[in-house]
Design a protein that fits this description.
This protein is α/β, with parallel strands linked by helices. It is built from eight helices and eleven strands. It starts with a strand and ends with a helix.
Length: 244
């Protein structure tokens, strides 16, 4: 039996196990299974890796950067952005990849307009690094928005995002867990009243399908997209990497 799985904490929001279990059943793949590993500390990863049948892992919040020290090798993208969400395990050797980059770019592009030339990226974690990479590749300027701006950066505090900032940055990407199940009543603190039809709000969260962040933007006429298609794309990219 070849085993794959997901590490993170918590994992109550994740659809990954369901997706892969259904994929294996639908495609008649009978020698594989997929498990959730809700580890409360990245140090617990060593115990997970003790399973000799483990062939690959997906990595979610909050370990996309913490897992780097466990890797034996890194893909060029992981080297570039310093975040990993997919690990291939072969002969005990761990190689880190980032499938968020593929998933985000391919799901972002269909609704991206020529006027979406500046973005606000909410959050500074591992997922934000993948978003930054894609925006840079597409030539879209961006500012990071965080509760704790990093010294020597152009990071904005949420309270600094006013009507002028929103007017200039028409693409807004949420990489934080705010609004994710079960805390669906939360959303990033933005001036939603100044959002308009030229805005494109993208939420990496896919559970629930319509977060409060997306609801409030859609009510103002903005184009919105959740992270469900991104999940599917990155899941299939993970499967390709594990079986390459």
């Amino acid at each position: 039996m070849r085993r794959y799985g997901l590490i993170g904490f918590p994992l109550t929001h994740s659809f990954s196990q369901k997706y892969f279990t259904e994929k294996f059943e639908k495609e008649g793949i009978r020698d594989c299974d997929y498990q959730n590993y809700a580890i409360s500390s990245v140090e617990e990863l060593s115990a997970v890796l003790a399973d000799a049948s483990l062939c690959g892992l997906n990595v979610t919040i909050p370990y996309k950067q913490d897992v780097l020290r466990f890797l034996d090798a890194r893909s060029p993208v992981v080297e570039a952005i310093g975040a990993c969400n997919c690990i291939r395990i072969e002969d005990g050797r761990l190689t880190g990849h980032n499938t968020d980059v593929v998933g985000f770019e391919q799901s972002l592009l269909p609704k991206l307009g020529s006027h979406h030339r500046k973005a606000l990226v909410l959050g500074t974690g591992g997922a934000a690094k993948a978003v930054e990479y894609v925006l840079g590749k597409l030539g879209i300027g961006y500012r990071l928005v965080t509760r704790r701006p990093r010294e020597g950066t152009t990071d904005l505090r949420y309270e600094e995002v006013d009507a002028a900032v929103m007017g200039e940055h028409t693409l807004v990407v949420n990489t934080t867990p705010l609004g994710m199940y079960p805390k669906v009543e939360e959303c990033p603190a933005l001036p939603y009243s100044v959002v308009g039809v030229r805005h494109y709000f993208f939420d990496l969260i896919y559970n629930p399908a319509r977060t409060l962040f997306l609801q409030r933007a859609a009510e103002q006429g903005a184009v919105v997209e959740n992270g469900h298609e991104m999940l599917l794309l990155q899941a299939e990219e993970s499967w390709r990497i594990w079986n390459a």
